[in-house]
Amino acid sequence: MTENNTFGTMNKALKDDGDDFLNTALRKWKFNSKYKRNKLLFILLTLFFILFGSLFTYYYTQIVQVTVRYDNQCVLGTTCTFNINIPSYMSQPIFFYYQLDNFFQTHRKFYQSKDIQQLRGQDRSLSDLVSCAPFVTNADMGKVLSIGGTPLNPNDPAIPCGLIAKTFFNDTFKMYQETQSIQIFENDIAWDVDIEYNYKPTSNAQTQAWHDVTDEHFMVWMRTSGMGKFKKLWGRIKQDLPSGDYKIVVNNQYNSSDFNGYKYVLLTTSSPFGQKNLVLIVAYFSGAFVCIVSYIILLTLDKNKKDK
């Protein structure tokens, strides 16, 4: 009997505790359209989005950007000259890009076709370069001379190997205003982490490598783009350029017809918020529109409740 009474007492205590838990008054939040602070919040957010959207729009209009397609003006394998017109004054620094259309670097087989350890300076054997297949040897890459000018063994590991390296963009550019040369600085165009850590020469690079992996143009190319139309930094111009006609001399070696693509030169200035991009402008004005609509809905709900 004592044991039954004990269990009965425990069950009653547990039931009481359960009832207390189920009947506990919990804090809750409910949106109330009558609160003036809700309407004030939407008004302030609207002003905020419009203010910064207008600021981004102003700086967007101050950016000068010029793009010229040149693959249809130059014969492959030759050095050619084409004109580029700058419509308004460009203040330094001016960023010199090349742009490719219809080239998809995010294809899985393309993106994975490299050997990270080799790029970081480690000597790798053919069996180590599985990720580079089928572009593993010098013969696979179609390379015959090292960066030091010595002949390469066709059966030796290619340095660097892989499809990304094989498709490395190798056009070069010079720029002139009439007969005056415009210097294009080709240093400091790659990420600091790439320069300091990700790309180091192998011990036998001078005699065994077909390209210097510490070349910043190569580093820029190896950072694959997420879109089929992309631009990559080729250099900077550290002088102002008045409006007018300029000439660009290109050593046209890169075959864009292999992927049915197009090649462009793009010159642009920048602003405190970056280069020409409509994303911020659209985002902030869209935010302002949503806040205005929300404010109108609040007013409508509040009015309907008052009428009732």
UniProtKB/TrEMBL annotation:
Chief site of localization: membrane
CC terms in the record's Gene Ontology section: endoplasmic reticulum; Golgi apparatus; plasma membrane
Subcellular location: Membrane
Keywords recorded for this protein, A-Z: Membrane, Transmembrane, Transmembrane helix
Nuclease keyword on record: no
Topology relative to the membrane: Multi-pass membrane protein
TM segment ranges: 40-60, 278-301
Keyword Transmembrane: yes
One Pfam family linked to the record: CDC50
Family: Belongs to the CDC50/LEM3 family.
Protein known as: Ligand-effect modulator 3 LEM3 family protein
